[in-house]
Amino acid sequence: MHLEPTDQVAGPSQVTPIVELRSVSKWYGNVIGLNNLTIRVPAGVTGLLGPNGAGKSTLLQLATGQLRPSQGVVRVLGHAPWNNSALNRYLGLCPEQDAFYEWMTGWEFVHTCARLSGLPMADARDATARALEQVRMTDNMGRAIRGYSKGMRQRTKVAQALVHDPLVLFLDEPLSGTDPVARRELMDIIIALGAQGKTVIMSSHVLHEVQGVTANIILLNRGRLVAEGNIQQIRDLIDQHPHRIVLRASDPRALAAKLVRCDDVVGLELGRKDGSILAETHAPDTFYARLAPISLEDGTAIEEVYSDDDNLEAVFKYLVNP
Amino acid sequence: MPIFDQGYQHWHGTLTGHTWRWLAIAHQGVRTQWQKKATKRVLVVAMFPALVLALLLAGWGLFEQQSALLEPFLFLIQGLPAELKAGPRSFRVPIWTILFNNFLYIEVIFSMLLVLIVGPDLISQDLRFNALPLYLSRPVRRVDYFLGKLGVIAVYLAAVTIVPIVLAYGAGVCFSLDYHVLEQTIWVLLGSVAYGVILVVSAGTLMLAFSSLSKNTRLVGGLWLGVWFIGNIAAGVLAGMVRADWCPLVSYVENLGRIREVLLDTKSAWEPIARIFPSRRFAENAYSSEFPWQWSAAVLAVLFGISICILSLRIRSLDRLR
Amino acid sequence: MMKMTLDPELPPPIPARPMPLSRRGAGAAVWTLFLLSVKQQIRAQRMFIVVLLCALPVAFAILARVYNTEFFQADDVEIALVFYFIPHAIVPLTALLYATGMVQDEIEEQTLTYLLTRPLPKWSIYVCKLLATMLVTGLLVGLFTIVTYVAIYAGSDDFWVKIFPVRALKTTALVSLALVTYTSLFGCLSLFVRRALVVGVAYIVILEGVIAFIPFLVQEFTVMYHFRVLSERWLDLRPSDWSIDLDTAPDAQTCVLRLVVTSLVVTAIAAFAFTWREFRVKTPEGA
Question: What is the ipTM of this complex?
Answer without folding.
Answer: 0.86
